């Protein structure tokens, strides 16, 4: 018994260490979901507190591949240079900063994840649906994010399924910057597809 009492503090210390190192459910969320949950309402330009019904998100993510033209990859200096001259809705100074900051070779070599979104990691106000769902509500599509080499910038491709010609959005790439462990809107690049 005396020996047990000598080892009791050590057992308590080890138990506490093991329990404190155990990950919680929120720590097990993959990076792309952490990113999605931080940026989703900003992408749609809506206030989270004012949502009365679920927002529909396509299970199948968009792919940056739709932006790649024959010899003009989206993640290239050449593509970003299209936004250096004044473009409506684009902060060209921030685009210039990105051109000087980003490693385009690294970005273009990233394998793009096109696996379906999983409901269990997403906010409860977001409902995953098939893009061909017969609904009267808008269905939003987002790509899985692509991150730069040091993880300070995240890129997401966004589009809303057209229900009527007046309720149609173009394709936009929104870029977010990680500041104090939160993703903050940085700049957007409106895309025109041929």
How would you characterize the overall build of this protein?
The protein has 194 residues and is α/β, with parallel strands linked by helices. The chain has a domain at 28-68 and 113-191. Helices cover 28% and strands 21% of the residues. It has helices spanning 2-21, 31-44, 77-81, 92-101, 104-109; strands spanning 55-58, 126-129, 139-142, 146-147, 153-160, 171-179, 182-191. Strands 1, 2, 3, 4, 5, 6 and 7 form a seven-stranded mixed sheet that branches. A hairpin with a 2-residue loop joins strand 6 (171-179) and strand 7. The longest helix is centred in the N-terminal third of the chain and has 20 residues, at 2-21. It starts with a helix and ends with a strand. 21% of the residues are buried.
Explain the layout of strands and helices.
Layout: H1 2-21, H2 31-44, E1 55-58, H3 77-81, H4 92-101, H5 104-109, E2 126-129, E3 139-142, E4 146-147, E5 153-160, E6 171-179, E7 182-191
Parallel strand pairs: 1-2, 1-3
Antiparallel strand pairs: 3-5, 4-5, 5-6, 6-7
């Amino acid at each position: 018994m005396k020996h047990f009492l000598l080892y009791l503090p050590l057992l308590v210390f080890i138990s506490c260490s093991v329990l404190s190192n155990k990950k919680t459910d929120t720590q097990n969320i993959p990076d792309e979901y952490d990113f999605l949950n931080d940026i989703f309402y900003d992408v749609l330009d809506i206030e989270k507190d004012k949502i009365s019904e679920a927002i529909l998100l396509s299970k199948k993510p968009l792919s940056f591949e739709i932006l790649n033209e024959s010899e003009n990859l989206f993640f290239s200096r050449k593509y970003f240079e299209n936004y250096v001259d004044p473009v409506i809705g684009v902060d060209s100074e921030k685009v210039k900063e990105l051109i000087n900051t980003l490693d385009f070779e690294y970005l273009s070599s990233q394998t793009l994840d096109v696996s379906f979104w999983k409901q269990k990691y997403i906010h409860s106000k977001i409902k995953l649906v098939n893009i061909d769902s017969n609904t009267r509500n808008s269905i939003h599509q987002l790509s899985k994010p692509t991150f730069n080499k040091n993880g300070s910038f995240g890129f997401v491709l966004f589009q809303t399924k057209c229900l009527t010609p007046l309720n149609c959005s173009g394709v936009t790439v929104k870029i977010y910057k990680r500041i104090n462990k939160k993703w903050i809107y940085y700049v957007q690049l409106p895309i025109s597809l041929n």
